[in-house]
Design a protein that fits this description.
Layout: E1 13-22, E2 25-35, E3 40-44, H1 51-59, E4 66-71, E5 74-75, E6 86-90, H2 101-111, H3 116-129, H4 145-157, E7 163-167, H5 175-192, E8 195-200, H6 203-209, E9 212-217, E10 220-225, H7 227-232, H8 237-242, E11 247-249, H9 251-258, E12 263-266, E13 272-274, E14 288-299, E15 304-310, E16 315-320, H10 327-330, E17 334-339, E18 345-347
Parallel strand pairs: 3-8, 3-9, 6-7, 7-8
Antiparallel strand pairs: 1-2, 1-4, 4-5, 9-10, 11-12, 12-18, 13-17, 14-15, 14-17, 15-16
Helix pairs in contact: 2-3, 2-4, 3-4
């Protein structure tokens, strides 16, 4: 699958038939992708899907077996990392423990030969941008995990790269701090207008921050789109299962309901629960209703998650935001599970 930018705009990054082989295995297998100027693009996928290898290829830490990498229209496929106007932020921060924050941030400018006074000024500005201007003299050991992550960001941004690469940078943080950093990262990217390419296996991170997402599987891009498109309109069984919770209905059931022999998916929050336990034929809008039995009910804070074993179909997950009886009164109860026609998403490639 390919995703290309309009011809009038040169993309920040363009990948064409990108392949990276390790022995007989193609870790990246013919990836075509355009990443637009100034967008927050996430590469999402499970371990071994190829997303991190693509990031390393863009950074120059690996060279492609075949295919091309363009940075703002210029082929950089064979160039070393220092010859590419990109910078990378890693999960482990890679800060110098013996240096102050301002010296850590200024290090890249020092390597580039910038005068001491100017590089200190730039480094202080970068630390202020990530809300650490008061801590310029501290050392990394005196900071929290979230603060160290901000220092790593400041150090990467101070050299003003055209593209910032982020390799699962929030993975070591606890949940609340990770959620806070998601918001800060997106606000920072929006204010700077720099292209961010973010690698993650965490679907919530990708859905929360991204302008667009590329979902990777087996070295290829399974689907590219906005967070809404990826979640609401998955184009394959893999994407439907990997991004969020999905109820996938088989082709035989689809034939019975719709006269169409293809799998389809309905998200848990799109299923409606009724207590009359009477199956309905397809509604006028293409919807349906099926009988089943509640097998479990778990309160998850904002809703109740119910598992329902359908009489003529798979076990499904229903997410209900309404008031429900206690779990012990729900389990074993006969119910009807229904959905509207527009909430059924067809998966034509799943056969």
């Amino acid at each position: 699958m390919s995703e290309t930018a309009p011809s009038a705009e040169v993309p920040a990054i363009r990948l064409r038939q990108l392949v990276k082989s390790f022995g007989d295995t193609n870790a990246v297998d013919g990836v075509d992708l355009d990443i637009r100027q100034g967008e927050f693009f996430s590469m999402l996928g499970p371990s071994g899907s190829g997303k991190t290898t693509v990031l390393r290829l863009i950074a120059g830490f690996e060279l492609p077996t075949s295919g091309t990498i363009e940075l703002e229209g210029k082929d950089v496929s064979g160039k070393a990392p220092f010859e590419r106007d990109v910078n990378t932020v890693f999960q482990d921060y890679a800060l110098f423990p013996h240096m102050s924050l301002v010296d850590n941030v200024a290090y890249g400018l020092r390597v580039r030969g910038m005068a001491k006074a100017e590089r200190r000024e730039r480094a202080v500005e970068a630390l202020e941008r990530v809300q650490l201007g008061k801590f310029v003299s501290r050392r990394p050991a005196q900071l929290s995990g979230g603060q160290r992550q901000r220092v790593a960001l400041a150090r990467a941004l101070v050299v003003e790269p055209k593209v910032l690469l982020l390799d699962e940078p929030l993975g070591a943080l606890d949940l609340k701090l990770r959620q806070q950093m998601q918001i800060e990262l997106k606000e920072l990217q929006r204010s700077l207008g720099i292209t961010f390419i973010f690698v993650t296996h965490d679907q919530e991170e990708a859905l929360t921050m991204s302008d667009r997402i590329g979902v990777f599987n087996n070295g290829r891009i399974a689907q590219t789109g906005s967070a809404h498109e990826i979640y609401q309109r998955p184009q394959s069984e893999f994407v439907a299962n990997f991004v969020g919770t999905s109820n996938i209905f088989g082709s035989e059931l689809a034939q019975d309901i719709y006269g169409r022999r293809e799998q389809f998916v309905v998200r848990p929050e799109r299923l409606a629960l009724a207590w009359d336990a009477v199956s309905g034929s397809p509604a006028g809008d293409g919807g349906a209703a099926l009988r089943g039995t509640v097998t479990s009910a778990v309160y998850v804070g904002h809703a109740t998650q119910l598992h329902v074993a359908l009489d003529a179909g798979p076990a499904v997950v229903v997410l209900s935001g309404g008031e429900l009886p206690p779990a012990d009164q729900l389990i074993g109860r006969q119910v009807t599970v229904g959905w509207a026609g527009h909430d059924a998403v067809w998966l034509p490639d799943a056969a």
